[in-house]
Amino acid sequence: MNKSVKIAIAGEGGQGVQSIADIIAEAGNEEGLEALYIPNFGIEQRGGVSVAYVQIAEKLIGSPKFEKGDVVVALSKRAVDRIIPYVGSNTIFVYDNSLIYIPEVSDEVVGLQSYETVAPEAQTNGFSLKEGEHNHYLIPHYADKVIGVPATDIAKKELHPRVFNIVILGAVIEAAGILSQESVKNAMENNLGSKFEKNPQLRQLNIDALQKGIQKIKEALVRS
Q1: If we measure between CA atoms, which residue out of 209, 20, 189 comes closest to residue 113?
Q2: Domain count for the chain
Q3: What's the pLDDT tens digit per position in 56-94?
Q4: Which CATH number fits the domain that encloses residue 21?
Q5: Domain residues for 124?
Q6: Which pairs count as long-range contacts for 211-215, CB under 8 Å and 24+ apart, including other chains?
Q7: Is 16 left (phi over 0), alpha (psi -120 to 50) or beta?
Q8: Overall pTM > 0.85
Q9: Dihedral sign from CA coordinates of 155, 14, 83, 9
Q10: Residue 4 and residue 27: Cα distance in Å, rounded?
């Protein structure tokens, strides 16, 4: 059976959405899998919502676009608005249940960001609200699993705000279940190695953050 996973991640500019996606795609390539990562650059100014789409598969990926994700991640209230059309009944929906405010993250660590609008094919299967509701606060409970990961609090209280996005990375790869930790660590090294050389402590912080995210998803899946 061909194993594949479709991932959609949305967050505020500066939260490291594109860095997460880039590392996942690179880890997939390292394992000899097909990997496709699409940052959809748009017209929004910095401070908008950044969205990334990643597909990892054992065989050739047929289309760069998809309507529903296997793993969908939202890192802010506005990101829920933007990403909710990609959530289906088979989706694992992961969100930062500590944030709903923008964490203090350094662009020097999180890397490239992009800002765009939702693809039209996702809008056709959008989510309708009852009169008076505001989907800024709406969590898609119709998903297969809905998992809150307090990534912002973990990073700030236990590690460092700069590794917030790596906590999320750990959560995503555990939820997706298609990549090894070793390949993800190697991809992290390739992406952030120069920063690790300047600040060796940052390497261990990132490894610890990755493990924190993985563990949170493991615990949640056991409970479910």
Answers
A1: 20
A2: 1
A3: 999 999 898 899 999 999 998 888 888 999 999 999 999
A4: 3.40.920.10
A5: 4-223
A6: 211/170, 212/154, 212/158, 212/159, 212/167, 212/170, 213/149, 213/151, 213/166, 213/167, 213/168, 213/169, 213/170, 213/171, 213/172, 213/173, 213/174, 214/170, 214/171, 214/173, 214/174, 214/181, 215/170
A7: left
A8: no
A9: negative
A10: 14
